[in-house]
Amino acid sequence: MSWEFVSLQQGIDEAGSPIQLLWKPEAGPWTPPVVDEEYAGWKQEQAAWREGVAISDLSYHMSDTFLRGSGAAQLLSDVSANNIDTFAIGQAKQFIPVTAGGDIVTDGILLREGEESYVLSGVEAAQHWVTFHAERDGYDVEYVTDPDRSFASEAPRLFRLQVQGPLALDVVHRAFGGPLPETKFFHSTPVELGGASFRALRHGMAGQPGYEFIGGFADHDRVKDALLTAGAASGIVHVGALAYATNGVESGWIPTPTPAIYTDPGLAEYRARISLYSYEGQNPLYGSFFSDDIADFYTSPWELGYGRSISFNHDFIGRDALRAAKDGSHRTKVTLEFDAHDVARVFGDDPGYLNDYGRHRIESDGALVGLTFQTINSDPEHKVLGLALVDQSVAEPGSAVEVVWGRHPGHGTAPDADLGFPRLRATVRPAPYNEYARTAYRQD
C-alpha cells in the first residue's frame, strides 16, 4: 500500500494556522520508545546517576543523518551558527541552526566521524533543515537518515549506551581493563570491548561524569552485556524511559524548543517538503500560556544558553539577526523550585511521577514574566523542578514567582481568560540546577 505524502504546509492550511495544528491540550509527555518504562523503578533510576552509576540505552529515540562528501563541511557551516573550521575528528558539538529571523530551528548533536563525514543526531527537525538546503542548493554531499524507532520496527544503524554517575569511571575501568585514553569533554576516542570496535564519547546527562558509547548496532547486545557485567559490582542501575526523560531538567537542557519555521513566507517551500507526520507537524504544544501567534513560542539560542557555541567567523543563515538578538535578548534560562506546600495542594502529598512539557505561565505581581518548558518531580531532591525562560527582571536566584498550572483549551478561548487554574509559588534557581553540571562539568 502506498501513502499519499501530506506536507506540513498542507496540514497548517487545513487546520487554519500553525497553532490550531499543534495545540493539543490533552497531550501526554514524551518518553523514549522501545526501552521499558522502568527497570528498578523511576525513583531509584533517578537516584542512580546522582549517587552511584546508571546505564541508559539511547539507541532508539534519536534520528541520525549521516553526511559524507567534499561539500559537507561547507553545508554545515552555511546552515548553522557553529564554527566548523575548529572541529576535530571524533569531536561532537551542540548543533545550532537558526532561521533568517535568528530563532532556533532546534538543536542537535553533530559528530565529526572523518575528514568528510559527519553524523547529526537528535530530533529530526535540525536534520530536515540540513538536508533541505543540501538538496536545494546542490552541495557535493551524500546523506542518509536513519529515523528514530517510534514507528520503525527494524534495528537502528547505531547503538548508544550511556554510563554515568559518580561510579561511572569505576565501571568503565573494570569493563576495559583500565582507564580509557585521556579525552576532553564532548570528544571521543576509539575503543574495543568484547571484539567490538566503537567510539567512547566523554559525555553524561544531568551533569554527571561518564561516557556515551556509540557503534554499529550489530554489537549492541555484546557491548551492553559487557557493561552491565562490569557494573554489577558497583550496583549499576538500568535507566528506563520514565526516569531518562526527566534528566535534562537538572542539567539545564531545554529539549523541545518550537522550530521557528512556521511563519516566514520564505520558508513556504521548506514546509511543503516536510511531512505533516514529522516532529514539526506533530510535536504538541499545551499549557496555561496560549497565543494564536506561534511566533510567541519561538526561542533564541541566546536564551537557551548556547552562546558559547555560536561563532560569527563565517556567513550563515540568520547571522545578522542572531547577532542583533544578542543584546536584545530579555529572557534567561532558569530552574524553578516549586513550593512544597503548593505542590501538595495541587498534586497531593506524593506527586508521584511527573514529567510535563507544558508552556505554563510564570507570573510576578500578576504580570507574565516567563514560560516553563519542562517540569518534573525530582525524587532525589524531594522537589518539583521546572526548567523555564524568564524575564531578566526575575532571573536573579532567589526571586519569587508564581506558576499558573493548567491546560488552556486553545483557539476560540481568550488567551487571558480566567480559567480558574491553580497557582504554585516557585523560587528561581540557577540552570543547570545540578551544581556539578553548573560548575565543573565542562571544565576540560
Question: Could you give a short description of this structure?
Answer:
By secondary structure, the protein is α+β, with helices and mostly antiparallel strands.
Structural descriptors:
alpha+beta, 444 residues, 15 helices, 25% strand, 6-stranded antiparallel barrel
Per DSSP E runs of 2 or more residues, the count of β-strands stands at 18
Query: The biggest beta sheet, please?
Result: 6 strands, mixed
Helix share bin: 10-25%
Strand order of the largest sheet: 8-9-10-7-1-11
Radius of gyration (CA) equals 22 Å
- The overall pLDDT average reads 95
Runs in which pLDDT lies below 50 for 5 or more consecutive residues are: none
Topology, element by element:
Layout: H1 8-15, H2 18-22, H3 42-51, E1 54-57, E2 63-68, H4 72-78, E3 92-95, E4 108-114, E5 117-122, H5 124-136, E6 142-146, E7 158-164, H6 168-176, E8 188-193, E9 196-202, E10 210-216, H7 220-231, E11 237-239, H8 241-244, H9 247-251, H10 268-273, H11 279-282, H12 301-304, H13 319-328, E12 331-338, H14 340-347, E13 355-356, E14 361-364, E15 367-378, E16 383-391, E17 400-404, E18 423-429, H15 435-439
Parallel strand pairs: 1-11
Antiparallel strand pairs: 1-7, 2-5, 2-6, 3-4, 4-5, 7-10, 8-9, 9-10, 12-16, 12-18, 13-15, 14-15, 14-17, 15-16, 17-18
Helix pairs in contact: 6-7
